[in-house]
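User: Structure with zinc ion, tokens only please.
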Amino acid sequence: MTTRINREATVPAHAAAVVDLLNSRAYADLADKLDTAESAAEILRPFGQQDGVPAQQRLDLVRAVRSDLLDLMDARDTSDAAGNWAAFTGRTTSITFQQDFSTPGQVGLRQVTGDPVVGRIIEDVATLITAGNWSRLRFCANEVCRAVFYDTTRSRTRRWHSYEYCGNRTNVAAYRARNAGCDGTSTA
Ligand SMILES: [Zn+2]
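Assistant:
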């Protein structure tokens, strides 16, 4: 298998915000960013969080939604996924939207009930799904990293959140394994 360095295309803002939310979890050697008021506000700002400390109730729901979405990424290729999506629907029943026709010639979804920040998260996830881009959210193939990234490649085959950081390390390990005690068959 050959690996090409794919030039990074632009990640849409709503996708980048969801990626940052998923990477706010504790992983690798990073602490949970929702545990600190300042970093929590930063993670939630793209979803409309004002300056200041996010309310505990909001943070609890954001944590639950984040956990559901990470489970959904894990379950993507299994029969569990349908059950997980149903559970996600149940998780977000407090959030409802209405079609708003009040501006002539335009229509948009307006949130009617529920936490507005979580509402924006739900809208952004919905946008990813309706555009067929949910599967672009991937875990880094480096087992000690597992950062979530948005795969902008046409083929959707990017493996690492950062080719320079995780890709090279993996390549080096693979190269060493391939060449250990053999004649070093070239696979260029
Ligand atoms: Zn990585």
